[in-house]
Amino acid sequence: MGRVDALGGSGGRAVSTAAVKVARGPGAAAAVAAVSFLAGSVPFSQIAARRFAGADLRRVGSGTVSGTALYDVAGFWPLAAAGILEVAKGAVGPALARRAALRATRCWPGGRARRGHLGALAACAAIAGHDWTPWLGGAGGRGLSPAMGATLVLAPEGTAVLVAGMAVGRLVRQSGVATLLASLALPVVLGVRRGTPGAVLGLCICVPMLVKRVLGNSPLRSAPGAPISRVVSRLVFDRDPAPVS
């Protein structure tokens, strides 16, 4: 019996050591980032628009592959179904990162910090996959839905900030401005609540969202107006300036 217990203990330590090496190694970060990006890249809103309305969201309105555009062409129920999936895909990578780093946290003193950074990487990759999905030639949405999914796993108070921004924007009919303010508030709120790892997570979420707002799905140079007005209009209002007649 003692020999069996000894072997079991040795096996357990070996598994724990292997888990720590995996969680600490660059291979873990690469794998988590790849899974996160691939999950985030699935364009559920576009799929729903094709299935229920025969529409290409890249040709609707501003060309953003988003829930708003899906609602315009297909109505509420396709939006509800696709919206749940859009949020869920943002949670896949962060959940994987959390699970991988949690094992290391139990037997490695630096595991807690690693867990936060790995989650931030996963969130950033999921949003990047959504914003520049290869399945749509680099087009995509703005990243709000997968950001909600990522924060739901990693920092639920961040989800509350994003949802509040979206709700206020709908209420005052200034979604672009409200979601911009919510995105900018995210690193501050998470930094106050969770310290440096929270601030890093907030930045990893908001930076790709802001970059996508400016770059859009069409070249910046093709928008009307002066270059600086194009950048400001896209960043603040999430749309191109109106053409001058």
User: How does the overall form come out from the CA principal axes?
Assistant: globular
Helical/strand content category: mainly alpha
What is the mean pLDDT? Answer: 84
Listing every helix as H and every strand as E from the N terminus to the C terminus, the arrangement reads HHHHHHHHHH
Low-confidence stretches: 1-23
- Span between termini: 89 Å
Which bin fits the share of residues in helices?
A: over 70%
User: Could you say how many structural domains there are in total?
Assistant: 1
Number of strands: 0
Number of helices: 10
Q: Rounded to an integer, what's the Rg over CA atoms?
A: 21 Å
Notes on the protein architecture:
The chain has 245 residues and is mainly α. It has one domain. The chain contains ten helices and no strands. Helix 1 crosses helix 5. The radius of gyration is 21 Å and the shape is globular. Mean pLDDT is 84; it is low at 1-23.
Strands, helices and their partners?
Blueprint: H1 2-24, H2 26-41, H3 44-53, H4 67-74, H5 76-107, H6 111-131, H7 144-154, H8 156-172, H9 175-215, H10 227-237
Helix pairs in contact: 1-5, 2-5, 2-6, 3-4, 3-5, 4-5, 5-6, 5-7, 6-7, 6-9, 7-8, 8-9, 9-10
